[in-house]
Amino acid sequence: MMLIVRFPPFMEHAGVPEIWRKARTKPEMALEEIDRLTAVGVRFGTVLADAGYGLSAPFRQGLSARKLLWTVGIPRHQKVYPIDVSLIFPVAGHGRPRKNPIPDTLSIPAETMLADASWTSLSWRIGTKGPLEAAFAATRIRVADGEPQRILVKGQQHMPGEEAWLIGELRSSGERKYYLSNLPGDTELKTLAASIKARWVCEQAHQQMKEELGLDHIEGGKGSTDMR
Known about the structure:
IS701-like_DDE_dom; eight-stranded mixed beta sheet; 8 helices; 27% strand; two-stranded antiparallel ribbon
């Protein structure tokens, strides 16, 4: 898509509508699609996304601004703060006093936050070879996705953002996955795990549409082309 955007004649020849002739990230397109669907009456339970979307702070914040619940994958190095982080005004050793408060503790990677967590084995559905199981851990945190600010000797760091669940998944292979969710603070671990695994239904449907309906072979020659 980015290649086409850089060459307006291609967009003109393809019949791409004017409103789409701008570079947009996938998270931006996703939010626009959510707005379009909401405008025609579609309602959402929990928005689910992989880490390709979940690592985008504007995407997560956009979902929250729309009053939507979400559970998204994140990279293991996503920075988070403890839930009890406070903002303080440290005494300056020299120079003028600070105008803005800073966190009383530094943010750390998601994997570090859950390094000493207690993991609980859960099963979310029955597969062809028996129950599908993994171990899960979760804790309440503040996401480090606020405004960037100079924090002591660490330079520019993101301030604490909204409260959320940090969830870890330990698979039987030893692989660990991490997620963020803005589900309520009293949500049970099994519900958080079910929210994560609900994405399988979407992925399975997409795969079947390609295999059974041949959607992976459809090509649109014009921006107004209908999929038939």
